[in-house]
């Protein structure tokens, strides 16, 4: 069955005062599946990284100007394209700062939208139905633009798809549909069958298969219709007369009291459609839901309540639904496996396959879950192989951990990578749910196996990290921090509290990932006498006078290599994982303020220890070891000071620590200042061309200005 997983927030919204609009014009997927471009309803375009919900760039037009169509990304040129004030086309690159200084061209007619397929050239659609490829339009921006539409027609929606070498543009109106082939240019006009008087479609959606276009359109009365058109039927001449568009009723959705207003439907695949703004059949009034319906069997398969007002907007990219609601733009991951009648009704039965069974074979899933006794042996003994979906549906039965682990190992060995993610996600959800419901049940090793596949993330299984903390399974916590790119800041701080409050004696009993432990062992216990070698020479081998020797001895006695780590080895390893976890400053700071002053002091002391160790000239660069960077350490120092500066200033015990931190910053400023003095000289060296003929020995004088 289809599933909606735990969602997360991409960004906040600024809806208009009467909440009639979300404030978002459009969302477009960028060059890969982890970046989207969000265009607001007024002046801004923002590029987001989806996996960690961070803005990577933002561009704003001047006061008085307005973005009038969503920005798109042209993958052919790695440029962004948008339209301001209906007629000004703007093109810019990611490293451009000001839109006003980017390329712009004014066209002769109002633009309705710019659309771009993956790998294709952007297409410009004008408000009166004319279409131009972007390059041909920019070659002559003031070229005359013809009117294709009748005077009373206005565009409601559009989509663009590439079929082999054909570009097919669909224009949706209240009662008509235009299909336009761009190469060669041709238009066919279709007439939608009339619904109840005064009703026009709320939304349009399309999927494409085998040179057929499958159109879905939703009416305010809850009727969702489907029309199938063949691309082969598009001729090379413009169609003058509107042809009737046959349709079939696909779904009759519940509408509650009255009719639907802010609702939208989007096809996810051939058998599933996402619907927002339509009441849930079994929920009370006043609640808004995002639902997935199976159109083959007309069954509701997944639903998630959405807080706040629904605006009737919906986008879907890479198995994620983007939905504005209230003052939030949320991302909801989903899964739509191939459906059968049994799975659609939630009554999928176990399937039997004939397979030879050896005396020492592992018991089947059916035996594990149901406790069935082995059947009498036959000439060719058989065992029951259940589908993974039946495993998910029957996890309320007692599971023997060792057998589960062996079955999981076998499954992970046999399965292809592309088949793992949905199954691993479902299995992890089931195991976590069972563990939460039954405190006596917890399969640590199996969950660790699933995390190691890298097919899980926090949004797929949101209770996993907190469950591991509750069970004090710090090894699993460490794995999640390493492999999950989307852990919320609140969960990160919960892990930090647990790690830093744990007694060192208890921490040393925990088994952790060896690579990170080895790094800390080297950092804490390495004999710093190796620091004696500098620039290839040992100072002890040189002839030095007594004064130099005494000075060196005094320096070594006070060197930072004598520092003692304020926390135990294993606790340090766990804190290092926190330092390397992605975060947003805005969302992290409020949770950091919940740390006690004692924990803050200990954390800062540990960060000071790391800083001093990293600052030593002789500190080895241990490639291949998982460890925090110096910039990450300094970022966390700044975060802690921002969150607790007032408390630290008022705490007498923190005075020495703050003075030390002040000296760190002062030394960094001094270093940057000194580097700035020689910047010009270094640039001159970089510009100099090396001589081609240099003997085995040469002396060259370089003049630096």
Automatic annotation (TrEMBL):
Q: What is the name of the protein in this document?
A: Nucleolar protein 11
Which gene is transcribed and translated to give this protein? Answer: NOL11
Name the keywords, alphabetized: Activator, Nucleus, rRNA processing, Transcription, Transcription regulation
A GO cellular component annotated for this chain's UniProt record is: nucleolus
Q: Region labeled Disordered — which residues?
A: 533-557
Residue ranges constituting the Nucleolar protein 11 N-terminal domain according to the UniProt record: 1-334
* One GO BP: maturation of SSU-rRNA
Q: Which Pfam families match?
A: Nol11_C, NOL11_N
Location(s), subcellular: Nucleus, Nucleolus
Keyword Heme present in the record's keywords: the answer is no
User: What is the first-listed, main subcellular location in coarse terms?
Assistant: nucleus
InterPro entries attached to this UniProt entry: NOL11, Nol11_C, NOL11_N, WD40_repeat_dom_sf
Q: Does the keyword Ligase apply?
A: no
Q: Give the source's domain of life in one word.
A: Eukaryota
Q: Which segments constitute the Nucleolar protein 11 C-terminal domain?
A: 401-705
Which stretches are tagged as biased composition: Basic and acidic residues?
A: 547-556
Biased region (Polar residues) positions are 535-546
GO MF terms listed in the record are:
RNA binding
According to its UniProt entry, this protein's organism is: Oreochromis niloticus (Nile tilapia)
């Amino acid at each position: 069955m289809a599933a909606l997983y735990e969602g997360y927030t991409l960004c906040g919204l600024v809806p208009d005062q009467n909440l009639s609009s979300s404030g978002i014009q459009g969302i477009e997927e960028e060059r890969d599946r982890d970046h989207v471009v969000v265009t607001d309803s007024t002046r801004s375009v923002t590029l987001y990284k989806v996996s960690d919900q961070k803005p990577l760039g933002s561009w704003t037009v001047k006061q008085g100007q307005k973005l009038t169509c969503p920005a798109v990304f042209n993958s052919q040129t790695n440029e962004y394209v948008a339209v301001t004030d209906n007629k000004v086309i703007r093109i810019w690159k990611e490293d451009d700062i000001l839109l006003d200084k980017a390329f712009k061209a004014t066209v002769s007619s109002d633009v309705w939208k710019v659309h771009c397929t993956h790998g294709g050239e952007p297409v410009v659609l004008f408000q009166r139905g004319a279409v131009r490829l972007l390059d041909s339009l920019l070659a002559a921006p003031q070229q005359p633009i013809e009117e294709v539409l009748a005077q009373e027609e206005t565009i409601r929606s559009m989509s663009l798809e590439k079929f082999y070498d054909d570009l097919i543009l669909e224009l949706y109106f209240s009662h008509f549909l235009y299909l336009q082939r761009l190469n060669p240019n041709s238009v066919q006009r279709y007439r939608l069958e009339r619904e109840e008087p005064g009703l026009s479609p709320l939304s349009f959606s399309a999927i494409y298969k085998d040179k057929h276009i499958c159109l879905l359109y939703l009416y305010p009365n809850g009727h969702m219709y489907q029309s199938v058109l063949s691309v082969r039927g598009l001729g090379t001449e413009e169609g003058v007369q509107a042809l009737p568009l046959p349709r079939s009723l696909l779904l009759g959705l519940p509408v509650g009291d009255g009719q639907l207003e802010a609702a939208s439907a989007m096809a996810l695949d051939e058998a599933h459609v996402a619907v927002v703004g339509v009441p849930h059949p079994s929920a009370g009034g006043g609640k808004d839901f995002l639902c997935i319906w199976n159109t083959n069997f007309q069954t509701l398969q997944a639903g998630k309540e959405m807080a706040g007002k629904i605006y009737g907007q919906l986008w879907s990219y890479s198995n994620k639904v983007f939905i504005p609601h209230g003052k939030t733009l949320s991302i909801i991951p989903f899964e739509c496996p191939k459906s059968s009648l049994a799975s659609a009704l939630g009554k999928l039965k176990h399937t039997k396959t004939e397979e030879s069974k050896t005396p020492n074979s592992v018991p089947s899933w059916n035996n594990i879950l149901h406790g069935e006794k082995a059947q009498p042996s036959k000439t060719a003994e058989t065992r029951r192989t259940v589908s993974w979906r039946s495993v998910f549906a029957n996890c309320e039965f007692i599971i023997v951990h060792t057998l589960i682990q062996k079955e999981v190992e076998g499954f992970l060995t046999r399965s292809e990578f592309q088949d793992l993610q949905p199954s691993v996600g479902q299995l992890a959800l089931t195991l976590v749910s069972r563990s939460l419901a039954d405190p006596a049940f917890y399969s640590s090793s199996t969950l660790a196996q699933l995390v190691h596949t890298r097919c899980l993330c926090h949004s797929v299984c949101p209770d996993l990290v907190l469950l591991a903390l509750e069970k004090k399974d710090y090894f699993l916590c460490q794995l999640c921090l390493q492999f999950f790119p989307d852990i919320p800041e609140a969960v990160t701080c919960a892990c930090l509290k647990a790690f830093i409050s744990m007694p060192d004696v208890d921490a040393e009993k925990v088994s952790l990932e060896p690579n990170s432990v080895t790094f800390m062992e080297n950092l804490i216990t390495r004999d710093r006498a190796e620091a004696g070698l500098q620039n290839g020479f040992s100072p002890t081998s040189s002839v030095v006078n007594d004064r130099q020797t005494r000075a060196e001895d005094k320096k070594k006695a006070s060197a930072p290599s004598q520092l003692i780590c304020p926390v135990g080895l294993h606790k340090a390893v766990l804190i290092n994982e926190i330092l390397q976890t992605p975060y947003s400053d805005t969302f992290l700071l409020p949770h950091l303020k919940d740390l006690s002053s004692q924990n803050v002091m200990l954390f800062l002391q540990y960060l000071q220890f790391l800083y001093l160790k990293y600052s030593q000239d002789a500190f080895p660069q241990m490639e291949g070891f998982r460890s925090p960077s110096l910039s990450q350490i300094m970022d966390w120092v700044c975060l802690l000071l921002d969150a607790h500066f007032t408390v630290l200033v008022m705490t007498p015990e923190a005075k020495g620590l703050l003075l030390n931190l002040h000296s760190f910053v002062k030394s960094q400023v001094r270093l940057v200042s000194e580097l700035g003095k020689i910047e010009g000289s270094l640039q001159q060296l970089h510009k100099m061309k090396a001589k081609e003929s240099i003997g085995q020995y040469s002396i060259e004088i370089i003049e630096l200005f």
